[in-house]
Amino acid sequence: MQFTWKLPRSVSGIARNTLQNYVVDSNEALEFKLVRSAADLENDEVTFKPEMSHQVYGDSESIFGYTGLRVKLYYSAARLATYLSMACDEMVDSQKFEVQPDEVIKPIAEKIPPGYHSNLDTFVAALDKDATFQPFGELKHKFTIDVDGKAKNFEVYMHDISPSGFNEYHERLQTFILWYIDAASYIDTDDNRWRFFLVYEKYLVNGNPQYAIAGYTTVYEYYAYPANTRPRISQMLVLPPFQRMGIGVQLLNTIYNHFTADDRVVDITVEDPSENFLRIRDFVDSKNCLKLPSFKPEKLDAGWSPDMAVEAQKKLKLSKKQTRRVYEILKLHITDRANPNAYKKYRLEVKSRLNVPYRKEDHDMNKLKKMLSPEEFNATTMMITSKEQRLENLENQYNELEEHYCHVLERLASADLS
User: Fold this and answer.
1) Which of 172, 206, 296, 304 is in Cβ range 3.0-4.6 Å of 80 for a Cys bridge?
2) Rounded to whole angstroms, how far apart are CA atoms 266 and 227?
3) pLDDT at 86 (0 to 100)
4) Judging by beta carbons within 10 Å of its beta carbon (0-12, 13-18, 19+), is residue 263 exposed, middle or buried?
5) Are the CB atoms for 86 and 67 separated by under 8 Å?
6) At what angle do helices 356-371 and 374-381 cross, to 10 degrees?
7) DSSP 8-state code for residue 293
8) Domain residue ranges in the chain
9) Which long-range contacts (CB under 8 A, 24 or more apart) does 46-51 make?
């Protein structure tokens, strides 16, 4: 592991080598748990790690001044009571080396709500309150997943900002995005246009049901003229202990089922989707579109049609842009890639869409050519992408897109399409 943390220039070569031993990877030092009982505190199997920590500890994702550093950020599985502490094997001798160790607790404490536990005994005592926890809002969906031969039951609840106590709960819940969503930002829950979809595992303890948070999604209902709405999915996070179970698919379908029943909804959009979310969305949308008449194989073979966008918008609330993407995925499925002519025809069709921004650039340049002097126009063209660069960019874009489409098709091939 190469760290970009830099020691002061005044530190000598020998001391510098010694002090490098006190630089730790913050992703490795951190450990998270969703604690259901006191026994989980000693159970390493329920520990999970962050995907990133630069939003708390800086771009280097390193902490100076410690060896054997362990930072514990634990949450009770239902109410999300929080415990934060640190321990280390050794701390740098500040007087000997004239350097100070980095703050460890403070950067996290500034990002999480006040009132967290720093004493393990008080945190353990708080676990008892989880037994009476009830999810906020309205139950929208139930499903069961087989995990290693064991059935796990889940429930999805939807609500706005109104439930008493939810704002405080959400403040604790959204702290997870710091470690799993790049460029994450907390949302303003005072706005009543926010909708929240939370998924919990429901399990039994001595015959009594209890809940463990598994993930959540935030959706903002934008206004659309004249009296409609355009919901935009803002954040979706399935917590690491529950990933790769298909929960994201269930959560997204729950959102779709809720909003497609509303005639006022124009379409459902997504804000800055991650690559992982794109795969979930493309899979769900492709699976749903397969059931529509306009996406039958013979229709796909005939090429893109505005009827596809109309039907997908009306029945599934998909935007035209997303519908076109789904069309390309399903068209790739029926394209015989072993047939050079068929495969070339498909590639050219997709590249033609990808080339639209360049055609717009050409159009704008033609307009400028009429308005500018030859000298001014020549200076402007220096910033324009060359033909060779365009072709290279288009090829790279296409290859990345086809690889993504193939991943979606592989998942569709193993899915229940009934």
Assistant:
1) 172
2) 10
3) 98
4) exposed
5) no
6) 160
7) G
8) 13-129, 134-272, 340-405
9) 46/241, 48/239, 48/240, 48/241, 49/240, 50/179, 50/180, 51/27, 51/179, 51/180
Token pair listed for 44: 């390493």
Question: Under CATH, which architecture does the 13-129 domain have?
Answer: Alpha-Beta Complex (3.90)
User: What contacts 165, CB < 8 A, 6 or more positions away?
Assistant: 136
Give the span between the Cα atoms of 34 and 351, in whole angstroms. 46
Query: What is the pTM assigned to this prediction?
Result: 0.90
Residue-wise pLDDT for 242-288, tens only, equals 999 999 999 999 999 999 999 999 999 999 999 999 999 999 999 99
Phi (first) and psi of residue 73, to 5 degrees: -125, 100
- Angle 103-104-110 (CA atoms, 0-180°, nearest 5)? 90
**What would the two tokens of residue 239 be?**
């917590």
Q: How confident is the model at residue 95 (pLDDT cuts 50, 70, 90)?
A: confident
Q: What's the CATH superfamily of 134-272?
A: Gcn5-related N-acetyltransferase (GNAT) (3.40.630.30)
What does the alpha-carbon distance between residue 94 and residue 46 come to, in Å, rounded to a whole number? 36
What residues form DSSP beta bridges with 218?
A: 196, 235
Give the phi and the psi of residue 319 in degrees, each rounded to 5. -75, 160
Q: What is the pLDDT of residues 38-77, one digit of tens each?
A: 999 999 999 999 999 999 999 999 999 999 999 999 999 9
Judge contact between 283 and 416, C-beta under 8 A.
no
CA 96 from chain center: how many Å? 45
CA dist., res. 229 & res. 226, Å (int): 9
Sign of the CA dihedral with 207 first, then 247, 217, and 110 last: positive
Mean pLDDT of the residues in the chain: 92
Pairing of strands 269-270, 228-238: parallel
Kindly report the number of other CB atoms within 10 A of residue 347's CB atom.
Answer: 18
Task: Show the tokens assigned to 222.
Answer: 């934008």
CA distance from start to end of the chain: 47
Active site residues: 271
